[in-house]
């Protein structure tokens, strides 16, 4: 994925190289850019335009303007009033493939390539956004409104400012809108987002040491439950499983399908086997090596590793009221002893 903006590619980006700031782009790699379409006379007229942070939208190039990736364009605003300014990030045949996954009926139009005047106005408002965000947070705090304003985005012409916020409950922000309109002299729109979308806008570094997936390439968020961790034999430690958005990490779903496919060959984990030395229960499994650890119910600190094939054979024998040999004879490796640590009270 290309995480640099058009200005970065031209070495004209305002971001300092040594500062902990990045452009937060979700630019896709146009792998069809070097492939000519067999229908040159009928080129695809829809392009994808990126705005601030993770906001991307599709627009109709009705005027047949020659556009390339990185061009700054003036487009129709979402409200229909004024105009907005963004950067083209995707053109051509690949846009068709992107549109298949989205149900978009009505598309806004691209007016023209942005003029120098429009670009200067757009950049001047972008520079003001950080100061405006800090002022808006103070205003919301003074009004005792239980919400968190996490980002602000100006429309390209500066006629409207969108304030993104998160809140646990429903918020009455009518007074806040009046105060913001008086301070900033523009139309105000409040837009509530989820905690995952907030992390995507703010960005950061995850526990893996890489930039957050939601701020670099992940666009669609799927629900994540603790079952995803259980299927992968991960300990349910909320501090390790949650990301910066205080929700379960999206990466828990990345390898889930591979684990679910492998688990189909395993018997039920709650099933117990009956041996000559007593009843044994499953303590742990190794999904990809097809191994299971069993221990006697009366001695849970001693584990025996057994192949899945043997466990299935034992369960079949138990159904026929046949008792299996001891675990010591079935185990493929040495016995694993788990000891419990005890601490003495050394207080005087």
Summarize the structure.
The protein is 28% helix and 22% strand. The protein is built from eleven helices and 13 strands.
Can you characterise this structure?
With 348 residues, this protein is an alpha+beta fold. It has three domains: 6-114, no CATH class; 121-196, GMP Synthetase, Chain A, domain 3, CATH 3.30.300; 266-337, no CATH class. The chain has eleven helices and 13 strands. The chain has helices spanning 6-9, 93-100, 116-142, 174-184, 195-202, 213-216, 226-231, 238-241, 256-263, 308-319, 327-330; strands at 46-50, 56-60, 72-76, 83-90, 108-113, 148-154, 160-166, 187-192, 273-275, 278-286, 291-296, 299-307, 336-337. The protein has a five-stranded mixed beta barrel. Strands 9-10-11-12-13 form a five-stranded antiparallel β-sheet. Strands 6-7-8 form a three-stranded mixed β-sheet, with helices on both faces.
The quaternary state of the protein chains shown equals single chain
Query: What is the domain total for the residues?
Result: 3
Placed side by side, the strands forming the largest sheet appear as: 1-2-5-3-4
Give the strand content: 15-25%
Radius of gyration computed on alpha carbons: 29 Å
Mean pLDDT, nearest integer?
A: 82
Give me the secondary-structure topology.
Blueprint: H1 6-9, E1 46-50, E2 56-60, E3 72-76, E4 83-90, H2 93-100, E5 108-113, H3 116-142, E6 148-154, E7 160-166, H4 174-184, E8 187-192, H5 195-202, H6 213-216, H7 226-231, H8 238-241, H9 256-263, E9 273-275, E10 278-286, E11 291-296, E12 299-307, H10 308-319, H11 327-330, E13 336-337
Parallel strand pairs: 2-5, 7-8
Antiparallel strand pairs: 1-2, 1-4, 3-4, 3-5, 6-7, 9-10, 10-11, 11-12, 12-13
Helix pairs in contact: 3-4
